[in-house]
Amino acid sequence: MGPQGRVLGLPLTTVLDMVHEATPVHGSGRFPFYCDAELAERTAGWAAQGIARVQMKVGIARVKTKAGRDPEADAHRGRVVRDAAGPDFQVS
Questions:
Q1: What is the pLDDT of residues 52-89, one digit of tens each?
Q2: Burial of 39 (0-12, 13-18, 19+ CB in 10 A)
Q3: Residue 85 burial by Cβ neighbours in a 10 Å radius (0-12, 13-18, 19+)
Q4: CA-only gyration radius of the chain, Å
Q5: Locations of Basic and acidic residues compositional bias (predicted)?
Q6: The pTM is what?
Q7: Contact, 46 vs 27, CB < 8 A?
Q8: Where are the domains of the chain?
Q9: CB burial of residue 21 (10 Å; 0-12, 13-18, 19+)
Q10: What stretches of the chain show up as alpha helix (H) in DSSP?
């Protein structure tokens, strides 16, 4: 509790208006290591729970290529997520 909070008897988060009714969450996981079916199932499950966004790692291949990356596989996984959750689902 900061000085203003002590005087008012309130937590600092209330004094600074940092309390929110809701906080957006995102799904996250070991996406590079899921097969398409697992990725789609997990993403659809989050969407069904009202989770409207997912954060995906890119540049990590399931099987390392010579360069260690597979941009085509990243794009494919993005399409799998989009198809499973719908066009309004946010992917970052």
A1: 999 988 877 655 555 567 788 888 989 999 999 999 99
A2: buried
A3: buried
A4: 20
A5: 67-82
A6: 0.67
A7: yes
A8: 21-91
A9: exposed
A10: 3-8, 12-15, 36-48, 71-85
Distance CA 64, CA 59 (A): 10
> Mean of the pLDDT values across residues 15-24?
75
Maximal C-alpha separation, the chain: 62
Length of the chain in residues, anyone? 92
Tokens of 44: 């659809």
Query: What are 34-40's contacts with CB under 8 Å, separation 24+?
Result: 36/76, 36/77, 36/80, 39/77, 39/80, 39/81, 39/84, 40/80, 40/81, 40/83, 40/84
